[in-house]
Amino acid sequence: MKMSTIEVELNRVVQPDIGPIVRQPQCVRSDVHSPGTMSLDSDYSDAEEDLSIPTYKATKQAESGNLLQLSRQSSSFSSLEEDSNDDEEEHERSRVGDFFTAPCRAAEQAEEFVKKVWEAGWRVVHHHSLPDWLRDNDFLVKGHRPPTNSFLACFKSIFRIHTETGNIWSHLLGMIAFIAIAIYFVTRPSIEIQWQEKAIFSAFFVGAILCLGFSWIFHTVYCHSQRIGKLFNKLDYCGIALLTMGSFVPWLYYSFYCRLGPKILYLVAIFLLGSACIVVSLWDKFSEPHFRGIRAGVFIALGLSGVVPALHYVITDGFYHAIHCASLGWLCLMAVLYIVGAVIYAVRIPERLFPGKFDLWFQSHQIFHMFVLAAAFVHYHGISEIAYYRLTLGDCLETEIF
Ligand SMILES: [Zn+2]
């Protein structure tokens, strides 16, 4: 009779509380694994182990707490048998409840902590561990960032070493340099630089700053997710078109300073060509790896469209004048830098020749970035010279049509 009372009490007090405790660790493990849905493989194996340690401990704690509680309850039932005070039983039950839920709370806190650590940290991974949308260059073997799904993690990655570090910093520093030059230029007193010059040069500054800005931001958030990577990839291509358009404005303006017809015609032409490039860049398929050659070709064609006004100038003013007065030499150097950079980008040398040797530094994309930067600085020098020459000649005596 006594035993049956104990059994009744056991069923009444223990069983309702055991259920959640036993189930909770299972729930915790499935939750903790959810961030790991981003293709966990060998590169993540250590992280996964790390991740499971606190959860495993929490599970064990919960289980040991359960066993402890069972023994504790057995002793409490013997006292129940001796003294069946209802208040004491109620108090004991709430204490039992607290004791059971404490390990659960600990497990939840451990889970929360691990989630935060997981979100904050990632390790560079091998190329074969990347999802398809992050596999842009097969010749860069190691040191890739995994998908982060977090802008914060992407921007923090600027300060870590991986395949994109060089790409990010080359254009981030370039953008800062051009912002500084632009601020210096437009804040000169008007007696030194007039507002027309400031406006014309600003087209180039805006193009350069947007191009370099879109570029480093794209390289930073490229690993966020497929959608974000694609969106910023398009902006990156638009930036190249904007820089090309912005570069043409001061050059055409000062080369055909007193010739309204060609000036308007070529400015409109480069605006239409650049806009076409932007439209093509926004096309989804354009950013796929097998369109690399076409991408390079489209932008080389946009740059080479400058050959027409350059030839026009050589024919009307002569080669010597074009070199000494219209900065044609600097313009040619700029074109060579862009073209060589684009070719290096397209053929992926040197990493194609030595796969895995240029994963972090001196890969083709970084070289391409440096060529773009050099070309932008060369162009700034060229348009400064041509503007200086043109402005020292004074106003146009007459405005020619051609
Ligand atoms: Zn780039």
Shape: elongated
Q: What is the CATH topology descriptor of the largest domain?
A: Rhopdopsin 7-helix transmembrane proteins
Number of strands: 0
Overall radius of gyration: 34 Å
Low-confidence runs (pLDDT<50, min 5 residues)? 1-84
Which sequence of SSEs, written as H and E, runs from N to C?
Answer: HHHHHHHHHHHHHH
The number of helical elements comes to 14
Bound molecules: zinc ion
- Give the domain tally: 2
The amount of beta strand, in percent, is under 5%
Q: What does the main sheet amount to? A: none
Helix-strand makeup class: mainly alpha
DSSP helix fraction = over 70%
Distance between the termini: 118 Å
GO cellular component, one term: plasma membrane
GO molecular function, one term: signaling receptor activity
Subcellular location: Membrane
InterPro entries: AdipoR/HlyIII-related (IPR004254)
What does this 3D model show about the protein?
The chain folds into two domains: 2-121, no CATH class; 134-392, Rhopdopsin 7-helix transmembrane proteins (Up-down Bundle). The longest helix has 38 residues, at 45-82. With 402 residues, the chain is mainly α. It is elongated. The protein is built from 14 helices and no strands. The protein binds zinc ion (ZN). Zinc ion (ZN) binds at residues 167, 215, 219, 365, 369. The chain crosses the membrane at residues 168-187, 199-223, 235-253, 265-284, 296-315, 327-347, 367-383. Belongs to the ADIPOR family. It is a multi-pass membrane protein. Its main location: membrane. Zn(2+) binds at residues 219, 365, 369.
